[in-house]
């Protein structure tokens, strides 16, 4: 009799749980991907290369299945599948609460007319065993893009974008090793960018420039305070530095052909090169380093990237 009462009680609780107002098993068994950010280069031309990136977040309760995202250029702020499609990227297995981004190097349609367009993206249905509970976050509109008659490379934008990506990838390497994130320092940015531009302009590749200046000399010239007191009571003077020189549109051993207009690829090659070199890896992962400056320059054949640490 006692066991019978326990079973009845369990069934009553189960029934009560099912009829709680507002509860939906569909919500608990869904992955709700939403578009949160889109970034594109500022200008291009018909048939020209076009770099863009898009970010999604899983607002749902289970890991997402595969979903595609189509990127478009539209003459107005309303992004639809009838607009000019640039290309698509895939998102798969995004955990609840996590975000992910993808990069795309596509090309502008040949038949597009010169003018100003809105960049946007649409999250496709893809392959999913569960419904999308909120389709309201499946479309996003970003900034404007100027389409000129002839193509010119947005070189300064590419340089800045590569520097931003180098920061992200460098911090990814520190994160997986439970190290503190490096914070971008504008004063160090100035020192790093000056050195990259100097290497590109004077065709050298070294920590010491033709005038005999090393990283500490350059920091002194910019009045950057280089004395750091550590928690263990010791101190050191100077800044750390990593440099890399990357040829583009050539087959590079271990990397294949590196495309000039793909900032994500160039940044990844830079950080992979640092991680493959023991002294560069040590500088990037040094626990005492808290700040970073990054500068990127291009001489028409090579990208030069400099990291300065403090």
Question: Overview of this structure, please?
Answer:
By secondary structure, the chain is an alpha+beta fold. The protein is built from seven helices and 16 strands. The strands form five sheets. The chain has a five-stranded mixed β-sheet, with no helix packed on it. A hairpin with a 5-residue loop joins strand 10 and strand 11 (235-237). Helix 3 (155-175) crosses helix 6 and helix 6 (263-276) packs across helix 7 (278-285). The protein is globular, with a radius of gyration of 25 Å.
Reported by name, the CATH topology of the largest domain is Pathogenesis-related Protein p14a
Highest CATH level, the class of the largest domain: Alpha Beta
Number of helices: 7
The average pLDDT score comes to 88
Helical fraction equals 25-40%
CATH architecture of the largest domain: 3-Layer(aba) Sandwich
Count of domains? 2
The largest pleated sheet is described as: 5 strands, mixed
The number of distinct β-strands equals 16
Shape category: globular
The SSE order reads HHEEEEEEEEHEHHEEEEEHHEE
> Strands of the largest sheet, in order across it?
2-8-7-4-5
Superfamily (CATH H level) name of the largest domain: CAP
How are the SSEs ordered, and which strands pair?
Blueprint: H1 2-18, H2 25-28, E1 33-40, E2 43-44, E3 49-58, E4 67-74, E5 84-91, E6 99-107, E7 115-123, E8 139-147, H3 155-175, E9 183-184, H4 186-202, H5 215-221, E10 227-229, E11 235-237, E12 240-247, E13 251-252, E14 256-257, H6 263-276, H7 278-285, E15 291-298, E16 302-309
Parallel strand pairs: 2-8, 9-15
Antiparallel strand pairs: 1-3, 3-6, 4-5, 4-7, 7-8, 10-11, 12-16, 13-14, 15-16
Helix pairs in contact: 3-6, 6-7
